[in-house]
């Protein structure tokens, strides 16, 4: 399956992409740990079947020093011992925030309370914004069939400078 449309070469898509990158920059510069940001982005991307985003976030996390074991276990985080309680709370919030159509209640009070135990207001704002942003990115890439495999770490670094 080839990509349907090149979002990087279209003028309107490029303008939107710049604004999207600016929103991502706010999260990137937040006090939410970079490792948590990549784990959250990876998990949402796995759920949404976004090969491009799984490729990107796996490679960026590995380039930043994330272990292969943790990256391989993100999809099975509940059944693993390699994530902190804070990361587990973020991953639970990510799953419930991503699977809105599957869970009529959205993010449960229990999941929210667990996240509140580990993250302050600024970190929570970044986490909630990140879940929304990565889900939007997943949808963009899936709609146009942006395939994974060609991403190189740092490819979009200029967008964050």
From TrEMBL:
Q: Which InterPro entries match?
A: AhpD-like (IPR029032), AhpD_core (IPR004675), CMD-like (IPR003779)
Q: Which residues form the Carboxymuconolactone decarboxylase-like domain?
A: 20-96
A Pfam family per the record: CMD
Signal peptide range in chain numbering: none
Please name the Gene3D superfamilies in this protein's record. Answer: AhpD-like (1.20.1290.10)
State the name under which the record lists this protein: Carboxymuconolactone decarboxylase family protein
